[in-house]
Design goal:
Length: 809
């Protein structure tokens, strides 16, 4: 009770007086706590901040009773602290930190990846509570990372919470799951900094009725942007270690905004806007509407940003302004209107009027807005700036330097979108099937029963697809068929065709070019469509094509992808397109990029994805010839520990399909099938598969259909001129030889003799001297289903090697 009184008193004092001298220096926090969870020694991060191991904080040593948690290292840790280790929780677990009373930044660090030998954080769901606030509910770090902007492998969740003496941080695993965390950061802040209002001490209500934020509320930072500028790292902030990201990913159209940078301007902080509010890097950069030669053009459009938020919450929007343009020294020189959520937040905004000075004095304003669910569970919160015609000024322009958006959560409310409970769905489906089966047995004859079972299966397929689509609508942008028609200009520009349907070029409303795959109306029950969207919704990698949205209206199905300027790899390696032929270095870069993309699908996703259709037509190239794996219509999602993939039908393209897909005499179908296809792809890139044309069918016994023995003869004789002619250099010849050797390892007929994709990447990146020519295999003997190891396979150290030795998939 005493600490509560002290806390309220401190807030009251901060609201009624200003601290003299605060304008001269950044903030010095009372508490700075950096906990490297799961680490056994103290380490420094890239900003040279020291992260302490858990034993350093003696007051939290008693928590690990009953083996509630364990520490583990990340496979792909690199050198980024605190993402190299994690503490993993089997059951409810609480850290307790003793800190001074007041508002605190709480930052939680997550890296969803593989840990140890048996924990994949991509499938982790859990909740987090802090001092009575549920700040994360059924939270998935992996899903959050894959849907966040800008793209990153790591995630930092920042909260602002009131603390009276002890900060209790609890991790609560969801059913059949574990929880984890990589790092915990606690930093003090000036009292009332995010709760009392802007520089004027006010919170302007746009569509809510809050006047201030009290200790019954916690806040979550969703966006903190340096508008028009670069990223400002934690150590370059003003003492509170905040990160300010660029705003480029959130502009509706970059064509409607102009960056302005004035690095030599000295910012004149004031008593109402002290130096700790935002760093000079924020106030020295900004965006305007531009068109300085014809300012009347600015009256025709808005300066607009879009931010994804959760429906059903109130948000605090903080806008930072500092007009450093010479000539804007009178209140009427620059006037503009602020719209938040399509509502007027401030009709006449004049920075000079607010700052009451002609110098470079910054200000910041706070607005509150409630976002309802009428536009979906994850709508866009829109911010518009516009010079009004009613109040003409010399500069018909708008300006913004920085922006922060924070979500307000009351005691015992949630801060994350609640993901539907999978086990509950399974129980409902199971009960439905049992009930339907019982009725069928009671009232149906044999013939009718068969018919009923077929109907039930069809219904279950539709239900499963509908549930999948409902989930995709939460995670992805859903387009109506009318919107797809508008994007493609009534399907007027065809850029590709196939058995699946047609790919059209188009443009989104912000001008971004896209490729729209429209599936044929008659294409079965939509399983390929669900496969592709399900697979792509889980991916985020530089070598995987980005899925931007989808359309699902009965038989009208379409998938919206990023547009790749250079089209498919097939255009460049086709013998008919000699002018487009690529040099050895470029071919090597493409081969390495595809390998990394497949490595990500097999090991970096929450659920392993086997593509089953790797071929030149499904490798797309961007403007820099960076390869991206596309077309996931035949892909199959499978648990990482599965040993064999069950296939009802043959998947793939003749010439690239692994032999075990046709005949189990070679072994079981697994992720090694993609390895085989990759090897054939690289040989095709080098022209090896085109030297001799082999007519074969799926029933052929010709060994050369799966393994081109004649390549061995050329390698032994040093004859590689069939690749790119006689003019390649010695260095290029070595690169080609390495690519061929890696390909030969990949196309071994028995899956167990092929390296996994993580080793393939190492082999391509490694030295030619480390590679041997693989032995010529027998095409008629299956080596069975045994672990991935071969005495003749080159040995490479890799984080996944332990998994490969324990799993056949």
């Amino acid at each position: 009770m005493i600490f509560y009184v002290l806390f309220v008193f401190s807030v009251f004092v901060s609201d009624t007086c200003r601290i003299e001298g605060a304008t001269a220096a950044a903030y010095e926090p009372t508490d700075v706590l950096l906990l490297n969870c799961g680490a056994t020694s103290n380490t420094n991060d890239t900003d040279n901040r020291t992260w302490w191991d858990e034993e350093y904080y003696e007051d939290i040593l008693s928590w690990n009773t009953g083996n509630q948690s364990f520490a583990a290292k990340a496979y792909f840790a690199g050198s980024h602290v605190p993402f190299m280790e994690a503490r993993i929780f089997r059951s409810n677990f609480t850290y307790k930190f003793t800190v001074s009373p007041g508002w605190k930044f709480l930052r939680l660090y997550f890296y969803p990846t593989l840990y140890g030998s048996d924990f994949n954080a991509n499938g982790s769901y859990f909740s987090v509570r802090v001092n009575g606030f549920t700040i994360l509910k059924n939270f998935s770090a992996y899903l959050t990372v894959t849907t966040s902007k800008p793209e990153s492998k790591y995630l930092i969740k920042e909260f602002i919470v009131p603390v009276f003496e002890t900060l209790s941080l609890s991790f609560i695993p969801s059913s059949n799951s574990l929880a984890f965390v990589n790092g915990v950061e606690i930093v003090s802040m000036p009292d009332g900094f995010y709760t009392k209002g802007g520089f004027d001490g006010q919170i302007t209500n746009v569509s809510s009725n809050i006047k201030n934020v009290d200790e019954a509320t916690a806040l979550e930072t969703l966006y903190r942007l340096n508008v028009g500028g670069h990223m400002v790292s934690a150590v370059k902030d003003t003492g509170m270690f905040r990160r300010w990201l660029p705003d480029d990913d959130f502009l509706l159209s970059e064509n409607s905004a102009t960056k302005q940078i004035l690095p030599d301007v000295k910012i004149d902080y004031t008593d109402t806007t002290p130096a700790y509010v935002a760093p000079e890097d924020v106030y020295n950069t900004y965006r305007t509407m531009g068109n300085s030669q014809n300012l009347r053009l600015n009256l025709r459009f808005n300066l607009t940003w879009l931010f994804k938020v959760d429906a059903g919450f109130t948000y605090l929007v903080r806008l930072h302004f500092c007009d450093t343009l010479q000539g804007v020294n009178e209140p009427d020189r620059r006037i503009f209107t602020i719209f938040i959520g399509n509502q007027i937040a401030k009709l006449e905004m004049s920075i000079v009027s607010h700052s009451r000075t002609a110098s470079h004095a910054p200000i910041y304003l706070d607005f509150s807005v409630y976002v309802g669910s009428e536009n979906g569970l994850r709508p866009d919160l829109r911010l518009d700036l516009h010079p009004p015609k009613k109040f003409p000024s010399i500069f018909n322009d708008a300006i913004l330097n920085g922006l922060e958006i924070l979500k307000l959560n009351n005691l015992d409310t949630i801060a994350e979108l609640n993901v539907a409970n999978t086990s509950r769905r399974k129980r409902i489906v199971t009960i439905t099937l049992i009930a339907a089966g019982s009725v069928a047995l009671a009232v149906s004859a044999i013939v009718f029963l068969i018919f009923l079972v077929r109907q039930i299966k069809r219904k279950n397929m539709n239900n499963r697809q509908n549930k999948s689509v409902a989930m995709f609508k939460v995670l992805l942008k859903h387009y109506t068929h009318a919107e797809v028609k508008k994007i493609t200009k009534s399907f007027s520009h065809t850029i590709g065709k196939g058995g699946f349907g047609t790919v059209y070029g188009g443009n989104l409303c912000n001008g971004r070019k896209v490729a729209v795959k429209v599936l044929k109306d008659s294409m079965g029950n939509g399983e390929d469509f669900i496969n592709e969207v399900a697979s792509m919704s889980q991916t985020s990698h530089v070598n995987i094509v980005s899925l931007l949205g989808f359309c699902y209206e009965g038989s009208k199905r379409a998938i919206v992808y990023e547009f790749l300027e250079n089209g498919s790899l097939d255009r460049f390696i086709s013998r008919e397109n000699k002018p487009l032929t690529l040099d050895v270095t470029t071919l090597y870069g493409i081969a390495l990029g595809v390998a990394r993309g497949l490595e990500y699908l097999h090991y970096g996703c929450k659920t392993r994805i086997v593509h089953f259709d790797i071929k030149p037509q499904n490798i797309l190239l961007d403007g820099n010839l960076c390869p991206k794996v596309s077309d996931f219509g035949l892909a199959k999602l499978c648990e990482t520990r599965e040993s064999i993939v069950s296939l009802i039908d043959t998947r793939g393209t003749i010439g690239y399909i692994a032999p075990e897909v046709f005949s189990r005499m070679y072994g079981g179908v697994s992720h090694k099938s993609d390895v085989y296809s990759y090897g054939m792809l690289v040989l095709e890139m080098l022209g090896a598969r085109s030297k001799k044309i082999v007519d074969t069918t799926i029933d052929s016994n010709a060994t050369s259909a799966y393994f081109p023995d004649w390549i061995y003869e050329d390698l032994e004789n040093g004859q590689q001129t069939w690749i790119l002619g006689d003019e390649i250099t010695t260095e290029e010849n070595e690169i080609v030889r390495k690519m061929i050797l890696v390909s030969l390892w990949c196309i071994q007929p028995c899956p167990m003799d092929r390296p996994p994709m993580n080793r393939v990447v190492e082999m391509i990146e490694g030295s030619l001297d480390a590679l041997e020519i693989p032995p010529k295999p027998s095409m008629h003997i299956s080596r069975g289903l045994v672990p991935d190891q071969s005495s003749s396979l080159p040995s490479f150290s890799h984080g996944y090697e332990a998994e490969e030795n324990n799993s056949n998939l």
